[in-house]
UniProtKB/TrEMBL annotation:
Family the UniProt entry places it in: Belongs to the beta-class carbonic anhydrase family.
SUPFAM superfamilies cross-referenced by the UniProt entry: beta-carbonic anhydrase, cab
Organism: Roseateles asaccharophilus
Lineage: Bacteria, Pseudomonadati, Pseudomonadota, Betaproteobacteria, Burkholderiales
Assigned EC number: 4.2.1.1
Purpose of the protein: Reversible hydration of carbon dioxide.
Zinc listed as a keyword: yes
Protein name, UniProt field: Carbonic anhydrase
Cofactor: Zn(2+)
């Protein structure tokens, strides 16, 4: 298979964009890249969805080096995922991040597929973790108005994955040695560009379940109020 001229032009556009961005960044902040080369000291680990509409650094207006990022379909944190766990361990043990933020987003395609049992190929095996969340909360989800059900499950999924992050050996070990690590759960609105704190904020083992229960109650109350 040969590469078409259009494909080459598209990639050339990306390389040209990169050159322009690098030049503008260096002009705006002389020495930026030489400083970046010497250190990486982010305070935050962002665990988000791989969706291209959710660019982590841009949403919180942070520069390269200020946010450590891991992304996968539907922002899932599971104890068998050595990729995510390795990122978490590097962030916590070596970079000494202080905050782990699990971030979902509205109208998530992976969550939608999990909610409606859509056949989407190999990724079905991955989003079974989200289907587990759906089954856990099925009775309540059935009471949510159908047009809002995907977003409701998006928020439930954030809460469950944030709780999973709290139970990882990485976070548990950090808390055991009294290292400051706080786990949060946020959701991003594709319709308005805003991040919302779902109020699950956990900084020690004793807070995991109380924080989860409060956040879950808040989600349910908000959807009930909204009808």
């Amino acid at each position: 298979m040969t590469t078409s001229t259009n494909d080459k032009d598209a990639l050339r556009d990306l390389l040209d964009n990169n050159k322009r961005w690098a030049a503008e960044t260096e002009a705006r902040e002389p020495g930026f890249f030489s400083r970046l080369l010497k250190q990486q000291t982010p305070q935050y680990l962002w665990i988000g969805c791989a969706d291209s509409r959710v660019p982590a650094n841009e949403l919180v207006d942070l520069l390269p080096g200020e946010l450590f990022v891991h992304r996968n379909v539907a922002n899932v944190v599971v104890h068998s995922d050595l990729n995510a766990l390795s990122v978490m361990q590097f962030a916590v043990d070596h970079l000494k991040v202080r905050h782990i933020i699990v971030v979902g987003h509205s109208n998530c395609g992976g969550v939608r597929a999990a909610l409606y049992d859509q056949r989407v190929g190999l990724v079905e095996n991955w989003i079974r973790h989200v289907q587990d969340v759906r089954r856990m909360h099925q009775d309540w989800l059935d009471t949510v108005a159908e047009p809002r059900r995907v977003d409701a499950l998006c928020e439930l999924n954030v809460l469950e994955q944030a709780r999973n992050a709290c139970h990882t050996t990485v976070v548990q070990d950090a808390w055991e040695r009294e290292q400051e690590v706080v786990v949060h759960g946020w959701v991003y609105g594709l319709h308005n560009g805003l991040l919302e704190d779902l109020s699950i904020t956990v900084g020690c083992p004793a807070d995991v379940e109380p924080a989860y229960r409060r956040a879950l109650a808040n989600v349910k109350a908000r959807y009930a109020t909204a009808g």
